[in-house]
Amino acid sequence: MKLVLSLITLFMATQLFAAPKTLEGCLNQKDQLDREYCQKKRLRAINKSFEKEFASYQKGYSQAQKNAALNKLNAQIAAKKAQINQLQKELKISQGNLKRVQSHLSHEEHAATKKQKKRERRKKKTKKLKKLFKKIF
Q: Which of the 8 DSSP states describes residue 68?
């Protein structure tokens, strides 16, 4: 029984402190400190995996291994740049939408402007009528 409990707690601890595979996993964290910790842990995991792979070739790369590693890194860089471009476009759209929502009138403001317009129209009509009466009489 104790073994089962210890295995369960071990499993939960590894899941709790495991670095997520994607950046979205980190960004979905609700707490700011957890989010920052998750991002730092993810970056450390990426760096460790590269260092581990690089250390395995400590004696030197063959030309084929070097080309494969360079192609892999270039592909990763291109994918990250594409992600950045996409996120920048989404950010620009979101900022535009934010400005549109901020500048849009609420129902109360819209109703108030309608009332003001009606009052202004009535005032104009009465002024016109007064001018007409002055001309006539």
A: H
* Token code pair at residue 43: 């970056």
Q: How many residues does the chain have?
A: 137
Per-residue pLDDT tens for 45-64? 888 988 888 887 766 778 88
C-alpha pair distances (Å), 108 with each of 29, 101, 104: 36, 15, 12
Query: What is 81-107 written as a DSSP string?
Result: HHHHHHHHHHHHHHHHHHHHHHHSPPH
Q: How many domains does the chain have?
A: 2
CA nearest 123: which of 22, 32, 95, 131?
Answer: 131
Find all residues with CB under 8 Å of 47, minimum gap 6, and list them: none
| Domain assignment of residue 124, yes or no | no
User: What domain range includes position 89?
Assistant: 62-98
* pLDDT tens string 14-46: 555 555 556 677 777 788 888 888 888 888 988
DSSP code, position 19: P
Q: Does one domain contain both 51 and 67?
A: no
